[in-house]
Amino acid sequence: MFPERVNTEFVEIIDDHTLKMRVWERGSGETLACGTGACATAVAAVLCGHCKLDTDITLKLRGGDLIIRYTGDTVQMAGPATIVFEGEVLI
């Protein structure tokens, strides 16, 4: 899809406190979530006037919802941690 390889997020604005996001990571393709990408997306949404400063913003990802709050100084993220794979490596 991206011959030069890229990490990117695709975002749909649902309302002033809800965003829908999908994640594409170079080397992996589409992934279920990305915490740093979700934080960056929420900050960009606030700075562009789509969401409000210092309020909970729900980011809906394929792996589950994350709640992001950008205060202007800090970014806080809350959400579930889910095991999606288990394996063993023989050394």
TrEMBL record:
Gene3D superfamilies: Diaminopimelate Epimerase, Chain A, domain 1
Annotated SUPFAM superfamilies: Diaminopimelate epimerase-like
Pfam families the record matches: DAP_epimerase
A GO molecular-function descriptor: diaminopimelate epimerase activity
E.C. designation(s): 5.1.1.7
GO biological process, one term: lysine biosynthetic process via diaminopimelate
Keywords assigned: Isomerase
UniProt name for this protein: Diaminopimelate epimerase
Lineage, top ranks: unclassified sequences, metagenomes, ecological metagenomes
Gene: dapF_45
